[in-house]
Amino acid sequence: MSRTLHLALHPYGVGGPAQHGLWKDPRIAKNISTDIRYYIRQAQAAEHGLFDALFTADSQFVSAGFPSHYLNRLEPLTMLSAVATHTRHLGLVATASSTYNSPFNLARRFASLDHISGGRAGWNVVTGVDSGTSRNFGLDEHLDYTTRYSRALECVEVARGLWDSYEDGAFPADVERDIFLDPSKLHQLNHEGEHFKVAGPLNISRSPQGQPVIFQAGVSEEGRDLAARVAEGIYAPGDTSLEQAQEYYADVKRRAASYGRDPEHIKIFVHGDPVVAATDEAALRREREIFEEDHDFDRSLALLGRSFGAYDFSTHDLDAPFPDVAHLAEKGGRTGAVKLIARAKAQNLTLRQVVETVSELRRSPFVGAPQTVADAIERWFDAKAFDGIVLAFRVEDELNLFVDGVVPILQKRGLFRTEYTADTLRGNLGLPVPANRWTTGT
Amino acid sequence: MSRTLHLALHPYGVGGPAQHGLWKDPRIAKNISTDIRYYIRQAQAAEHGLFDALFTADSQFVSAGFPSHYLNRLEPLTMLSAVATHTRHLGLVATASSTYNSPFNLARRFASLDHISGGRAGWNVVTGVDSGTSRNFGLDEHLDYTTRYSRALECVEVARGLWDSYEDGAFPADVERDIFLDPSKLHQLNHEGEHFKVAGPLNISRSPQGQPVIFQAGVSEEGRDLAARVAEGIYAPGDTSLEQAQEYYADVKRRAASYGRDPEHIKIFVHGDPVVAATDEAALRREREIFEEDHDFDRSLALLGRSFGAYDFSTHDLDAPFPDVAHLAEKGGRTGAVKLIARAKAQNLTLRQVVETVSELRRSPFVGAPQTVADAIERWFDAKAFDGIVLAFRVEDELNLFVDGVVPILQKRGLFRTEYTADTLRGNLGLPVPANRWTTGT
Q1: Counting Cβ atoms within 10 Å, is residue B24 exposed (0-12), middle (13-18) or buried (19+)?
Q2: For A265-294, what is each residue's pLDDT tens digit?
Q3: Luciferase-like domain: which residues (chains A, B) (predicted)?
Q4: Coil, helix or strand at residue A268
Q5: What's the pLDDT tens digit per position in B115-159?
């Protein structure tokens, strides 16, 4: 079977971590992040472009002192439920943390979204990089990295168990035999694990996809392992070289196979911020303009702390060598922290230089005229750097430029669908419907 | 100011506790409880009838052994978010438990619904009558009654604190002064109480209603106290006499006043299952038909246990005196349990007789031709038995009969609105927008 390219849209809104200055763009309404009509428009544009899914990031935390990331946003599951009834084919992937949610509530809400959307729900399982989140949930300290990942694995296992509570045909609704529910097709989970004790059954029937699609975003050792075990989709960071992306792709597929899974059943997306314009030159100009709009040293310094458990680097001398903060890496996003420390050490960088390196213009491979961007996508896709891209655009006009300019080229080359062939996210991603654990062949 | 009648719709679906046999009605699709189109249709019909709100009950539990209540339903907040974009004026009230949810997640999701709906969200705070719920959330035993109520009060206080995180005007988005968020208008809550420790701030701005409307359903001493302290709407059970309803109404309003609140700012709804038909006679026939459809001794016996911590009464001799189960009342819905025990003792009833009494036909005051039903509503409303009714109908035709037959009579008598005068739930209920605790007069 030939591989097919998948595309998802990540609607940025304003006030988020990756587009600091976006709110200043005169084309942007300042309150779009809480305006459901914005998300419905984005979703409909993505569906017009035959995208696989709308993808939403999330955090359950905003810093009172430096509230620059995931500030003032609609909660993903309520937002996507509203979007669901205004779309027909588009997958709806919500990020939700397994650290500060209970598996029963998560399983129920994603099953509900899957019913509401007719089989288009996906759950991007994260463990939470923002250490301050713990203080919104009664804990002084963020759970450590290892605990968070072991909890994530068990949380997905519990959710999947709950999603199997009802076998297909559990509701015969047979008036003559007076049977609404067939009790032999209803199963209690009775899970007792290290982190969770959940009896079940779930109070909502098996949803159109059997189970919502599981996404994961891990890049660390633990993250790759979790992804290979349970993920059906991966949302990998986009700021890597082609070679690094290939390494990640091959590694995760290999790990999945080592767990007895078909590597085809784990679709790897990378994040991409394409900049498309009429000419390559105009696109490069726009890329520089975006960089200038977002560039802010103080903000980069504050965001640096995010990878180290919300550590406040501003107390350090900017021109002294990068401080010894290795012990803080466990508290936040360990991979990013470890990478930064290694680079600072190898290149003997000061704190100021580390901040400047982090915030320097990263050349996206997807900048240029439509033809140029399509070429780059084809090259990376053919090189097995990804199965798909999660695309983010600054303004709706730029999303439309991609849909109307790049998509037709990808279609002509046979890389991308020319019509939806399925109404479910599983169907469009080429993922099988999981068998219900209780159903034995007849 | 003259009082105004309020109406809400409680869409039953099938498989719920109060309409056991409804799924057998040939006019009902068997899967309506998970079909978002059913809820959207119900909401639009309610809005066509100028109702104040759609009201959804909830439970986070279904019994594997006797799965007869709140079986297989969409989760309320995802469901109402989807309904929101298909309505413009109708309030959207979701039941959610303060026992098995965290206040940060609840506050965030209701604020999100309030943004999505443009100011129409309400939260019906319950503590959970189904003792088995605890086993879906890691606890062997359901929290006892007193703990649940003290937790509920604190949970609402935390949510309200989080909803005040951002003052009005917190987002000036002033390009010239380079200020997206004004940090002086963002506040941390730093709550530390008996049950919760929540730092905040919330990661979503103050919503169109300032705060979503708080509903409560308590009838016990603790419930009435909680309602009088924090509720802006009450959802009281409907199976009472006019005198009992008047006592409840006067008592809750008096208690609210004793807490320094304006009794007008707490709207008391009772549950009603009206049966409307062309003639009184036809309505009475239909009422009897519904009773026959729902009547089932074994099911009533099982449901009886719900008030006693899911106690299994089937192990007792049906014809012996009602067993001594007073010690179990703490585990479930205490008020109902205490009432049952008192009645059994006073009348010296057997277990069978208690079950039969519980499941006998209760004469709703709202059965008859449109004129008869309108008369009864007027009588109860004028007698201060309620400010509004939460109406439930078996099938959509019967909802339409009420909207087209009874509502115009209520309108002619000046009891009910002839058009929406507000786009928010607070506006339609005549409730003020709460002042933000951080905002001082200018």
Answers
A1: middle
A2: 999 999 999 999 999 999 999 999 998 888
A3: 34-382
A4: strand
A5: 999 999 999 999 988 888 999 999 999 898 899 999 999 999 999
Is the pLDDT at B68 greater than 70? The verdict is no
Which residues have CB under 8 Å from B360's CB, separation 6+? Answer: none
Q: Can you tell me the distance from the alpha carbon of B393 to that of B409, in angstroms, rounded to the nearest whole number?
A: 19
User: Is B13 within 8 Å of B285 (Cβ atoms)?
Assistant: no
What average pLDDT does the segment A67-75 reach? Answer: 76
Is the separation of the CB atoms in A16 and A69 below 8 Å? yes
Does A197 contact B112 at a Cβ distance shorter than 8 Å?
no
Determine contact, residues A118/A208, Cβ cutoff 8 Å: yes
Q: Which residues of chain A have a CB within 8 Å of the CB of B23?
A: 173, 180
pLDDT at position B439: 92
- Element spanning A55, H or E: strand A53-56
Amino acid identity, position B58: D
Residues 24-83 of A with CB under 8 A from B: 24, 30-31, 34-36, 40, 59-62, 64, 67, 70-75, 77-79, 81-82
A23 to B70: CB separation less than 8 angstroms, yes or no? no
Q: In chain A, which residues have their Cβ closer than 8 Å to the Cβ of B163?
A: none
**What 3-state DSSP class applies to B263?**
helix
| Cα torsion through A421, A424, A425, A430, rounded to 10 | -50
Percent of chain A clearing pLDDT 90 (strictly above): 68
Q: What is the mean pLDDT of residues A217-234?
A: 91
CATH architecture for residues A6-280+364-429 = Alpha-Beta Barrel (3.20)
Q: Do A79 and B166 lie within an 8 Å CB cutoff?
A: no
Q: What is the ipTM, given to two decimal places?
A: 0.94
Confidence of residue A238 (pLDDT cuts 50, 70, 90): confident
Q: Please tell me the CATH superfamily of domain B6-280+365-429, with its number.
A: Luciferase-like domain (3.20.20.30)
User: What is the rounded average pLDDT of the residues A59-85?
Assistant: 87
Cβ of B203 within 8 Å of Cβ of A61? The answer is yes
| Per-residue exposure over B147-179, b if at least 16 CB sit within 10 Å of its own CB, e if not | ebbbbbbbbbbbbbbbbbbbbeebbebeeeeee
Chain A nearest-CA residue for B83 = A82
pLDDT digit string (tens) for B399-419?
A: 999 999 999 999 999 999 999
Q: Note whether A23 contacts B166, CB cutoff 8 Å.
A: no
Which of B75, B177, B192 to mutate: most A Cβ within 10 Å?
A: B75
Ranges assigned E (strand) in A66-192: 91-97, 121-126, 191-192
Chain A within 8 Å of B393 (Cβ-Cβ)?
no
A295 touches B at CB < 8 Å? no
**List of residues 6+ apart from A239 with CB closer than 8 A:** A271, A362
Domain boundaries, chain A: 6-280+364-429, 296-358
The alpha-carbon gap from A168 to the nearest alpha carbon of chain B, in Å, equals 13
Pairing of strands A197-198, A191-192: antiparallel
Task: Report which of residues A20 and A70 the model is more confident about.
Answer: A20
A173 and B75 within 8 Å at the Cβ level: the answer is no
| Inter-CA distances, B442 with A95, A278, B124, Å | 41, 51, 34
**Which residues of chain A lie closer than 8 angstroms to B100, CB-CB?**
102, 104-105
Any CB–CB contact under 8 A between B189 and chain A? no
Three-class SS of residue B383?
Answer: coil
What distances in angstroms separate CA A45 from CA A49, A82, A87, A377, one per listed residue? Answer: 6, 16, 10, 20
